[in-house]
Amino acid sequence: MLLPSLLRRAHLPRPCHPPRCHLSRLLDRYGFVPPASLTPTAKEISHGTGAGADQKRRTKKPPYRPPSSLDRGDRPASHSDLPFDFRFSYTESSPDAKPIGLREPKYSPFGPGRLDRPWTGLCAPAVDTTLRSVDAEDPAPAAEKDLEEARRRERERVLGEPLTPAERSFLVDKCQKNRTKRQINLGRDGLTHNMLNDIHNHWKHGEGVRVKCLGVPTVDMQNVCRELEDKTGGLIIHRHGGLLILYRGRHYHPKKRPVIPLMLWKPAEPIYPRLIKTTIEGLTVQETKEMRKKGLHAPVLTKLAKNGYYANLVPMVRDGFLADELVRIDCKGLPKSDYRKIGVKLRDLVPCILVSFDKEQIIVWRGKDHDESIQDNLHNAFPSFLQLESAAVKNENVEQEEASSESVAGKNEHGEKEETSSDCSSDEWSEISSSDDVPDDK
């Protein structure tokens, strides 16, 4: 029975199948023939084995183009109601210093078409200073006075009533390093424009923000405190060395914060006159050379550390002029731009005459018209470290006595304590807080 069936199957014509690489015999048993669409031709097989098959199958993606912040399209330029000129740095650039040229064309660091204020190469003024007519009077002084008055009124409205001593101590304790990590670092560029936006971002999460100041701006800490309060509209409620606590105010609303357009790059510094002249005014060339040689051999007054705290440098230089006409400050390790900026601040604050920056040294001369009575008055205006320390101890004792007397006198008939308000203004508090300044000897 099996033999005829086998012979009959052997004589049947077998269907021709494409070459297969599998070991299954289901196709032979059931006589399945795949359709032509599933059967690859010899041409496709030869082309499919090539190395460039994957590249031909893949469609090339268009190159990635990030959304450019410079391409504004049809969007209008942003407008800011902040009543002051926009500068890159508010502490290290002075509107009184007039440059003699610019290093680049007047490219706005806010980007083309992003701000409705023109860039003069130094700042973006809030007042249009261009004269429409030759016979017209300059409108800038009156407009600037109006802006200052508007800024003062807005700041007083946002600050509201002064803080009580209890509220002040609570905020200061809340902003300490062991309580929060939120901090603004103020470095060699000083208070920059974009830093204002960072301060307002911190004010969304808390009433106070900690500002740590190091480097060149700390030579003139009064200027740093003044610019911080003026440009942010806040109030410095605590100062210890280079550590500041900036309070936002009672009526500050985060959703009504001012519009602060950001600078996209750092503008090039303008060209200023030379700091070190060939001959010092009032001296000959030979006397100038001898003074520079003598200054390099003078004893070092102090050595400045990199990114240190330099608030005690001005009184030290004034005290040094009482003993010698030349003062040398060691600046090894500091960038060249840093000790040049320090020299400019010493020239304006001491005051003194810059002699040389050779060999990473600042050499200053007190000048021929040096008057010790003037130095004594300036020394009284800027007390020394020992005077500051003794004043801080006295203030602490006075505050403790006042707090104890207020706690006793503030109790009413039911034994409840009444809240007392503090009438201390911002100027009075700046004087008190400056007495708590404990500089580091570096």
Automatic annotation (TrEMBL):
InterPro entries with a match to the protein in the record: CAF1P_plant, RNA-binding_CRM, YhbY-like_sf
Ranges of biased composition (kind: Basic and acidic residues): 71-84, 143-158, 411-420
GO molecular function: RNA binding
Domain of life: Eukaryota
A Pfam family matched in the record: CRS1_YhbY
GO cellular component, one term: ribonucleoprotein complex
Entry's Gene Ontology BP terms: Group II intron splicing; mRNA processing
Swiss-Prot/TrEMBL keywords: mRNA processing, mRNA splicing, Repeat, Ribonucleoprotein, RNA-binding, Transit peptide
CRM domain segment(s): 161-259, 281-377
Annotated spans, Disordered: 38-113, 135-158, 396-442
Protein name: CRM domain-containing protein
Organism: Triticum aestivum (Wheat)
